[in-house]
Amino acid sequence: MIKQSVTAEDVARRAGVSRAVVSRALSNNGSISPATRERVLLVAKELGYQVNFLAQGLNRRRSHLIGVIVSRINDPFRSSLLDGLLGEIQRHGFQALVTEIRSEQELEDTLRHFAQFRVSGVIVTSGKPPEALVNECVQQQIPVVGINRQPDIPGVDYVCSDNAAGAALAAEQLVRGGCRRFGWLNNDNSTWAGRMRGEAFRLALDELGVDTARNLVTLLAPQEGYDGGMQAASAIKSPPEGIFCANAQLACGFLDGMRQQGKDAPQDFQLIGFDNTPQTAQYGYRLTTLNQNVAEISRLALMHLLERARDPLQPSRTSWVKVDLIHRHTSLPTT
Amino acid sequence: MIKQSVTAEDVARRAGVSRAVVSRALSNNGSISPATRERVLLVAKELGYQVNFLAQGLNRRRSHLIGVIVSRINDPFRSSLLDGLLGEIQRHGFQALVTEIRSEQELEDTLRHFAQFRVSGVIVTSGKPPEALVNECVQQQIPVVGINRQPDIPGVDYVCSDNAAGAALAAEQLVRGGCRRFGWLNNDNSTWAGRMRGEAFRLALDELGVDTARNLVTLLAPQEGYDGGMQAASAIKSPPEGIFCANAQLACGFLDGMRQQGKDAPQDFQLIGFDNTPQTAQYGYRLTTLNQNVAEISRLALMHLLERARDPLQPSRTSWVKVDLIHRHTSLPTT
DNA sequence: TTGAAAGCGTTACCAA
DNA sequence: TTGGTAACGCTTTCAA
């Protein structure tokens, strides 16, 4: 019969101390003489002792898990974001519980499951959690942070790219690049971030003196992603001079769609997309884009989580992350 | 003072039964009269009772967690694979513990952490776990399955795309498409799957009567990914007629690199890449590729996990997943 | 069918 | 500084 696994009891016995001392030695928590500490640690290593996280979590009412809610991680921007979050989560000594959702119902179930694992925090990168459910989390002292979500639930912290500033950069670039007629490309049923970018674009153009009622048209893609952009392009006879696009996938599809018609940027139109995905930098696209600082977004998300864990009742906070214009090939140099 | 959370005890009291009965009602495990079952379930719903997974796992010595080891999920193929795995894991009622590793050391630590959470299984999509460590898992009855790894550790199951068959398809396509001189493009320090594809390509050409000693050259990219492919292209004066490439990212980079020199497929050379990533299908590339069936790979991975959980001592198995040639624009029609 | 009780492996409080 | 002990919340014998 094989011993299933080494427990604190085993270590205690072998080191000639009590379980309690073992716990203290390993957790640096509670007073213990340096000598015994050394000895226990040595024995623990000898025996290959590993704390049982389930037991630890049960006792502490909190696991070292952080729940992450994502969707469609095939999308390059989303996988970049997940990448950044995983790195940050691991850097802080947590493990990521990742769930991909396909509906709001799945989001609810997931949030429950996270709670059942007594996670140390939840990061929502997709969907809109119902306020009631989030309140349950808050009541259980589980910090929740939303990324690029509309900051509207009390007790939840948010990290968002500064969409408005990004849209303004795009507007300025296009105007100074000589455009007179503008287009805003987004897909139907867009996210909050997408809609926000569109509204801010209009506003920024207004302030730059553009008569947006006349000279700004909305191009609506029938679906999201590359294919949506391509379809939007095929529905157009002659593109506006300066086009701002809600995200990179849409922009790449649109550009390819126009090329199929023999039109290209920057000669026939200028194009700026949001999200600086790797693909937009490639030779075939060299798209001017707005870069979302994924590393900074991830860093702030964890920071909010940790701070709220320390003080659960503090007021909600929203961090806006600076967005940069990456000037490439699909927009003209400003004069 | 707020009640932290509803426990089985609470439900038991309210339903006028014992904790044990509550457990039976919820787990469908152990005999219980339909009437009390109904009643308990009703009360549980009323009170919003949720099983504490930490306590459950501690008692059962197994959590409903499955550990997944990944790396560089920015790569479109890898994020597709992760996507498939997450779907399959959730479909079976598990939660995914995802860790991104950057070194073999991190792999070891991760494997330990997974064990500490008493995961129901581990899926390795990157790195090469040391046999000793895997044996610890095996001893703890934790099933391990490797995806596209060299199947060489006893007690571990594997799921691999049929690289050899894929390479043979590519060879045949290129030969029948009229190529006489061939190239194999891979990056330095390639994975086992990559090397295997290269060897199989040579073998297949041999069998098709090509004098590979003379007419097959190896193009070595100095790094992986798109940039590596581009660099490989820039080191070439005149490309071989038919090029097979270890993966899609490399292939896209190579194609763009050649285009930069004014050469394009299929007129100046033919190109077939492994991994049918979304990008390869796009208008700018329309690359002929070998499709890895991610859904099937994921399905089999979970199947192996579940079967080995049932019978931990069964001999290791390796499933080879069929690969399909997607004929697109970078190879000529066969005559 | 039901309930009592003994774990599962930790941690934290309280005496010593 | 240490050890005993009572949780943590659940599952699973074993009797009744």
Automatic annotation (TrEMBL), chains A, B:
SMART domains: HTH_LACI
Coiled-coil residues: none
Domain HTH lacI-type: 6-60
CDD domains: HTH_LacI, PBP1_LacI-like
Record key words, sorted: DNA-binding, Transcription, Transcription regulation
Molecular function via GO: DNA binding
Protein name stated in the entry: LacI family DNA-binding transcriptional regulator
Organism: Cedecea davisae
